[in-house]
Write a structure and sequence with these properties.
The complex is a heterodimer of chains A (110) and B (112). By secondary structure, chain A is mainly beta. Chain A is built from no helices and eleven strands. Helices cover 0% and strands 52% of the residues of chain B. Classes of the chains: A mainly beta (110), B mainly beta (112).
Chain lengths: 110, 112
């Protein structure tokens, strides 16, 4: 299908790891992105991964890419209350056609 | 380095009116994108401008239009406003030849 799919909601305890999953649609997508949106704000680019990579780590963030299954995940280590937000994955299908998932709302419980 | 800026922050209109939303990209970025984010929904691609030209358009009616100026800033115009146009309108920019988009804070449009 055309949709980039994410689960709608995730709740974790402060200090635990969070894993947000995404299934994308186009095996030829070149870049895959994770964005964070805090309430009432725009989207903040967190990280991105090239399609020829399996993993990318950036401080507390780890992105895993499984091209065979078209599955992308974002792991946040030591989740903090400030990580509470909506997280969007997005795929770049080329020619500036970036398709966003529906977003996963992460709730961090103190 | 200043990020993408959008104005106004909030805009309240009534049905049938026209709305104009503005976006200034990051300095050096030539592409500007517009998205609509309705409450509870994801981002829907509206328009892409690059070097002053409309390059791509999402599945929106013609009353959604825009333009890009020589300084690469952009306007989004929505004519004949309908209640369902109420949404957060996000602008993003990217450098020429790259696809990674950087977003502004958005304009919240409310149609009464």
């Amino acid at each position: 299908g055309e949709d980039v799919e994410q689960s709608l909601f995730l709740s974790v305890r402060e200090g635990d790891s969070s894993v947000i999953n995404c299934t994308y649609t186009d095996s030829s997508s070149t870049y895959l992105y994770w964005y964070k949106q805090e309430p009432g704000a725009g989207l903040q680019l967190l990280t991105y991964i090239f399609s020829n990579m399996d993993m990318k780590q950036d401080q507390r963030l780890t992105v895993l890419l499984n091209k065979k299954d078209k599955h992308l995940s974002l792991r946040i280590a030591d989740t903090q209350t400030g990580d509470s937000a909506i997280y969007f994955c997005a795929e770049n299908r080329g020619y500036q056609k970036v398709t966003f998932g529906t977003g996963t709302k992460l709730q961090v419980i103190p | 380095e200043a990020g993408v800026t959008q104005s106004p922050t909030h805009l309240i209109k009534t049905r049938g009116q026209q709305a104009t939303l503005r976006c200034s990209p990051i300095s050096g970025h030539t592409s500007v994108y517009w998205y609509q984010q309705a409450l509870g929904l994801g981002l829907q691609f509206l328009l892409w401008y690059d070097e002053g030209e409309e390059r791509n358009r999402g599945n929106f009616p013609p009353r959604f239009s825009g333009r890009q100026f020589p300084n690469y800033s952009s306007e989004l115009n929505v004519n004949a406003l309908e209640l369902e146009d109420s949404a957060l309108y996000l602008c993003a920019s990217s450098p020429s030849g790259t696809d990674t988009q950087y977003f502004g804070p958005g304009t919240r449009l409310t149609v009464l």
